[in-house]
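Sample A.
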Amino acid sequence: MAKSKAPSILDIVNKTGKGNLQPIYYFFGEDYYLLQTALSAIETAAAPLISTDFDRETFYGDEKNLSDVLDFASAFPFGSEKKLLIFKQFEKVRDKKPLKEYANSPIDFTVLVIIHNGSISNLDSEPYKTLRKHNFIFEAKELKGKTLINWLINHIEKKEKSISEETARLLVDISGESRVILESQLEKIITFMNEEKEITLNHVHNLSTKLKQQTIFDLQNAIGIKNKDRAINIAFNLLENSAEPVFVVAMLTRYFTGVARVSELTKMNMPAQQAARIVGTHPFYYKDYQQARKLYSDTDLANVFSALLKADLSIKTTSADGKNIITILLSEILS
């Protein structure tokens, strides 16, 4: 039997406006950018219907009980036409079952937006089955590969700038696949390039130097040569400059997946340019993957992937500090 799927979050973003707000939006998925874009669309649409801040509340899954939030949703607004309740980190809520009953009979004066970071393994379980039945649940799927590159090129064109596919790919390799980070890096590049129209390789390379900020590539490079002190310093720099711990873990998982494939590609005498595409990096950086593979044995890689899985679970299921999680992760990788 095929697994059930949720509609794309893009289906709702373009349709949302004053007068056609749903009572429940359950947004889940790996694409943080899309989750935030969808939330912003709901907030914008609801703003004209809310006349006091008392009718707009934000809750967090590691702090608030679901039943308490649903009780709050059932209380009348203080004077607004609608109430907007935003429930973030819903993946950390232990008992999600009360949402099934609420979804079957939601309160019409309340707009409840639920943000679930990460995937859902079984959409046929409750409360997801009921949410799907009423068209309240939407998935934010990450853009990958060529699709992400095309999005980046089009996004830059909307800013009246241009970029080659090769340079766009390099920017993704350096910044990672998070569109939040990519958009932030683009704004910085455009600020530095002044009246120039084309974003070049030099603009991308010079960005980190001018800002004295490291990139996920710098972190990968430090880990690749097993420089623990430098890796921790770079990781902290990334976190202090808005990189999310989940992004760091995802990108390191991607990096080590690529490193693990190097031996196989070497045995096949694969040309560097083609091998780089397979492992998911720019040809300019493939030599660093080759060097890392020499330093990480098969046993090392098995331990690395175990540490990455543990860190990912910790981020998504506990309220532990992000810096602590990443520090422990790097210590385990580089031990």
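Sample B, a different protein:
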Amino acid sequence: MSAEGTSAPASGLRKGAPARRRRRVAYDVLPAHLGYCLRRAQVAVFQDFIRTLAPLDLRPAQYSVLVVIAANPGLSQAELADALAIERARLVHMLDRLQARGLLRRLMSATDRRSHALHLTREGQKTLKRAKALASAHEARLSAMLGSETRDSVMRLLGAFIGSAAPSRRI
């Protein structure tokens, strides 16, 4: 709240206040920390990916869920949670939302009556096809920004963190 009792604009400045020069922030050792740099890069990439998928009202995690279900019809919720390292409670909420949108269905598992087999609906398949096209455009922007050789090198290096060599092209 400002002194007048009204909320300050999102910029943190009161309405009508002169613009202040932003202070240059020192990062000290942070840019030398791998985790810090990975996180900053991840945020930048995700911001573009979120904007890219916005027309389909999909978030990156939802996209990943649809991709993995399409590639593994009948996958259980527990298997999906493990594969994508998503907390099971969070995944259930996400699956509920995707199911309510008509993008997936849960069927009783043929092998385990306690679990559900996940399948995309026809609408889910169509949405995923459009999402993959948008994701491909996103990847092309990143590749153009980095250059294809640098992108391929980054993918190989990041593969070390996920336990396998990441393919240079997989869209």
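Observation for Sample B: Helices lie at 34-53, 60-71, 77-84, 88-100, 122-146, 148-162.
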